[in-house]
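Hi Y.,

Following your request, here is the sequence exactly as I used it, all 698 residues.
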Amino acid sequence: MKLRAIAGILLALCSIVAAPSVAAEEEDPVVVIGFSGLLWRDVTEESTPNLYKFVEDSSGANMVVRTVEETTCPTEGWLTVGAGQRAIDPVNGCQKVGEGDWAGLKEANQESSYRAELGLLGDTLQDQDVAAVGPGAKLALTNSAGEFTGEYSDNYADVAGSDLITVDLGAIRYPGDELSSHQGDEYRPRGAIDKFLAAFKGTDAPPPEVVPQIEELDARFGELMTEVPPNAKILVTSVGDAQEAAPQLGFMAVRDGEGLASSDATRQPGLVQLTDVFPTIVSWLEPDAPVLERVVGSEIRGGDGVVDVASRLADDQERSENVRPFVGPFYVGVLLLAAVTGLAAWRVLRRGGRVRGLGRFAAWVASLPVASLLINVFPWWRFAVPWIALFAGMGLIAGLIMAVAYMVPRRDKVEAPIAIIGAITALTLIIDVLADTVTSHYPLQLASLLGTQPQVGGRFYGLSNASFAIMAVGLLLAASYVAARVRWGGVFLAVVGVAAILIDGSATLGADFGGPPALVVGFVLAGLLIYRVRLTPWWVLGTLLAAGATSLVFSVIDYLRPAAERSHLGRFIQTVIDGGGFEVITRKLSQSLFGLPWWMAVSVFVLAGVVAIWWWYHHTPRPEKEEPSIPLLRHTAFPIIATLVFGMVINDSGVVIPAIGLTVAGLGWAAMSLESVKGREVLAGTAGAEPVRDGDTA
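Below is the corresponding structure, written out as C-alpha cells. Let me know if you'd prefer a different format.
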C-alpha cells in the first residue's frame, strides 16, 4: 500500500510539472495570416474594427510586397513566402491561386533573374507539424517536390493543434483587375521601356466597390481571431497588390511589442519586405536552421515604442504613392534643363556675347538634385495639391543653395560657388546616412524623386546609386578646390577620400558595394592631376587593384557578422560561396547597358577604358605648361567622369549614374566658365571665334 501511495504521489507530481509545458506548447502556435490588397489607409476603427483592435496590441509596418515584376499577384506573393526569395507567376496577369502547374512554376522561377527555390519553406519545416487554411496558405507550405505534407482545411478549428498554421483570407481586387484578367498569356519580362514608363505611373484612389471587400476581409479576420489562442505568435500581412497600375505598400502587423516593426533587411522602423516573412517563420520555429545563413530577408521584430501606428504608416504610404508618378517627370525635366543650359553655355562661350544670369541659372539647375532630397524635410505630400508643393519647394531650395553659394565668397565668384554647391550636396547625403542610424523616420533618399521608392523594394538604407553619383561629384568638386589651395592639400584630399569611402562602403552606413571602388579611382586621379603626376601603367594597375580590394574588404567584414545582421554586401559573399556570384555580376553588367549580353557590356567598358587612359597619357599637364584659367575644371573633369563611368560599370542603374552626376558636374563647369572672362576667352579662341570683350562680362 505504501509503495502504491508513493507511486501515486510521484505520478501526480510529474503530471503537475509536465502539464504547464504541454499546455504552453498547445497554446503557443505560430499563425501566419495573409491576404492581398489591404493598405494601411484602409485600416480604420469604423471600416475595419477587428484589424484596428489587433493593431492596438501589436507592432505594425508597411509591407513591401514587390517580387519580380512591377506589381505582385497573390500567387507570386504566396510563392515568395514559401521560397524566401522574389518569385514570379509565369502568366501576364494573375491566375487564380493554386491553379498553376507546380512544375511550370518551378521551371519559370529557376529561369527568372532571382532564381527562387520554390518549396524551400516546406523543405525546411518538414519535421514540424504544419497546417494550411486556404489555397495560398497551402502553396506557401508546399515542398520543393510539389507536395503538401501537412493538414489542410477550410476551417481553422480543424487544424488548431498544429505548430504552424498559415491562413489565406483571400484578396481585395479593384474592378477590371480580377485574378484571372490575363490568365493563359505567355509571361513576358519587363523591358527597358516598361521600366521607364513605370516611373510615370501613379495609383488612383480605390473605387467604392472595394469598400465591401475590405469590410468582408475584416469580418473574416475577426471570426478567425475568436479561434486563435491568445498567446499565439501571430503575423498578419499583405502578400500582393490590389491592382496592376503601380506597386503599393501593404499592411503588416505582428503580435510582438508595440509601435513600429522593422527588420535588418530594411533597417527602417515601420518598413519590412515580403522576403522577411520566410526568416521570421523559420526563426520562430527553428532558430538554428542552416537555411537562415543564406536567406535574402531578415526576421521581423516588434517595436518598443508606443506611437499612433495606423496614422504614421498611412502617412508614410501616402508619401510614397505621391512621389512615385513624378520620378519620371523629374528626371526628364532635370536632364532637359541640363541639356538646354549646357548647349546655351557652349554657344555663348564659343561666340561671345552677354551672358547675364546664365551662369547662375546653370548653378541653380546643378542644385536641383540635392534639393529633391531636402524637400522631404517638409511634408509636401500633405498639401492640397502635392505636386505643386513638391516642385515649387524643390525650386525654392535650389535657389537658396545657389544664392548662398554666390553670397559667401567675397572675391572668388568663379570656382568657390561651385565648390560650395558640391560641399552642400555631399554633406547633405553624408549627414542623411549618419542620421539614419539614430532616427525613426525615413532618410531623405527613401521615397524621394532622386533616391529609391520603398514600394519597389530595391534599397531601403545607405546610399542609392543616384545619390552616390551626386555625392561623389560634390566631394570631388569641394575637396579638389580646397586641396589646391592649402599647404597640406594632399593630406586633406586623402583624409576626405578615406572618410567618404568608409562611410559609403560600411555595411552599417552607406552599404554601397559599387561606390567605394569608384571613389578610389576618382580621388587617386584627382590627386595625380593636382600634383601633376604622370599616369603610368603602374598607377593604373595599382588603382584598379585598390579599387577592387576595397569593396571585397567591406563585403568580407560584413560576411563575418551574424547571418541575420548582414547587409547585401555580406550576402554577396555567401552567394559567391554558394556558386551564384558570376550570375550576380553578369546580371549587373547587363543591366548597366540596357540589357546587352554581359560579354558585350564588358567589351564596351574595356574599349572605353583604353581610350580614356590613352587620352589621359597624352594630355596630362606638364610642369612647363601654363596654369589653366580655371584650375578646378582641369582638376576635376577627368576624375569625375572616370568615377561616374566606373560606378556605372559595377552598379545596375545603368546610365542613371553618369547622367545625374554630370548634371551636377557639367553645369558646375559651365557656370565656372561663364563667370570667368579669361575662361570664356580661352574657349572662344579654341573655337576660332573673336575673344569676348571686357564689356560683355556677366
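The chain has two domains: 26-307, 322-579+620-691.

Thanks again,
Q.
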